[in-house]
Amino acid sequence: MSKFQFELEKTIYLMDQLTEMPAPQVAMAGRSNVGKSSLINSLAGRKKLAKISSSPGKTRSLNFYRVTPGDFYLVDLPGYGYARTSKSERALWGQVIDSYVQDNPWLKAVAVLLDSRHSPQKIDLELVTYLQSIGMTIIPVMTKADKPKQREREQVRKQWATFLDGQKPLVTSAETGLGMDLLWAALQAAVTE
After folding, report:
1. N or C: which end of the chain has fewer CB within 10 A?
2. Phi and psi (nearest 5°) for 112?
3. Residue 83 contacts by C-beta under 8 Å, 6 or more apart in sequence?
4. What is the spatial distance between Cα 184 and Cα 4, in angstroms, rounded to a whole number?
5. Alpha-carbon distances, residue 2 vs 15, 29, 118 (angstroms)
6. Is 152 strand, coil or helix?
7. Does residue 24 have a cis peptide bond before it, meaning omega lies within 30 degrees of 0?
8. What is the per-residue pLDDT across 20-79, written as a single tens digit (0 to 9) for each?
9. C-alpha–C-alpha distance, residues 106 and 26, integer Å
10. Do the bridges between strand 72-76 and strand 170-171 make them parallel or antiparallel, or are there none, so unpaired?
C-alpha cells in the first residue's frame, strides 16, 4: 500500500478542455506500451487506477491525478508512437500535449519513460530533444527493468546518459517495485524546487 493517495481529478481530450490546474505538476510521457499505466498503478499502490490494456495506445487523454500528501498533480500523457492510431488523431494529441507543456508555469518536470529492453529509439530521442530545447526538467525513467539482464540494462542506461548530459535514467519495475522509492524522491524533488 502506497503512503500517497491518488485521485483522478480531471481528464482532458480536447484543447478547449485545457484549463489551468493551479498546483505543481509532473507529467509522465512515454511511447505506447512502455508500461506507463503499470508504473502509475505501482506508485499509487492500486492495481486499477490507470487502465492497463493488452493493446497499446489506450490512454487518449491527459489524466490529472491529484497526489497527497504533497499536493501535486501527476499528469498521465497519451502514449506516442502507436502505429494503429490515425495521423489526424495523433496530430490532435500532439497539439493538446504541446499546449499543455508550452508556457505552463505549474509544470515542473516531465518524467520520460524509456523501455529498458531497447536502445534509444528515434521517437524517444525526439521527445527528449524537444524537452531539452524548451528548458524542461527531465526525469528519465527506465521501465520494465525486471525483463532484461542487468548487464544489458546497464548498457542501455549508459547509452541514454550520453543523450541526457550524463544523467543516468532511474531504473524501475512496476512488477517488482524496483526503484519506486528513488522515483518518488525524484518526483517530490521536482515539485518542491
Report:
1. N
2. -95, 115
3. none
4. 10
5. 33, 22, 29
6. helix
7. no
8. 889 999 999 998 889 998 999 999 988 778 876 554 445 568 899 999 988 999 999 888
9. 9
10. unpaired
Q: pTM score, two decimals? A: 0.90
Number of compact structural domains in the chain: 1
For residue 8, name the pLDDT band (cuts at 50, 70, 90).
very high
Report which of 123, 122, 162, 167 is spatially closest to residue 141, judged by C-alpha positions: 167
Give 115's strand partners: 143
Look up residue 150 and give its three cell numbers.
542487468
Are 49 and 74 in contact by the 8 Å Cβ rule? The answer is no
Q: Check which CATH number belongs to the domain holding 91 and give it.
A: 3.40.50.300
**Which range of residues forms the domain containing residue 37?**
5-192
Q: At 30, is the secondary structure helix, strand, or coil?
A: strand
**For residues 31 and 33, what is the distance between their CA atoms, to the nearest angstrom?**
6
Q: Which residue in the block uniquely carries the three cell numbers 500532439?
A: 94
CA-to-CA distance for 62 and 59, rounded, in angstroms?
Answer: 8
Contact between 187 and 26 under an 8 Å Cβ cutoff? The reply is yes
